[in-house]
Design brief:
Length: 159
Amino acid sequence: MSVTPATAALDAAKIGYQLHSYDHDPANTNYGAEAARELGIDPEQMFKTLIVDIGQVRPELAVAVVPVAGQLGLKQFAQAVGAKRAAMANPALAARTTGYVLGGVSPLGQKVALATIIDETALLWDTIFVSAGRRGLDLEIAPADLAQLTQASFADIAR
């Protein structure tokens, strides 16, 4: 079994999950859509982890977990976290802060615990798929378990 910070966090918390791997095409940068296609998962059930800057003067990061079939609504996200604004974080800063490479960012096991909002559509599924911490490796988890471990809340943040 592959061990990543995400799976280590789940194992330590004794939360059930299932790993799913696929061969990632290095030329493909549409990571979530590729994962859904390769694993045969509905893109509404496959969620991407986005790092968002909600800071006013200097970067302050937060995590958005949204279906790969949609996009993050930045205004909705800002409202959900109580910020005045939201913008996608600098990719290098996102990678440094989370400890993951882009396309492999998991909402679990990040180097720094960040405020996390999961799109409320996750609650429509018994399980959802998120990155397990590397490209080509996803994990299937109950939305409530993901929220518990990340101390996340659910909100309408996708469009």
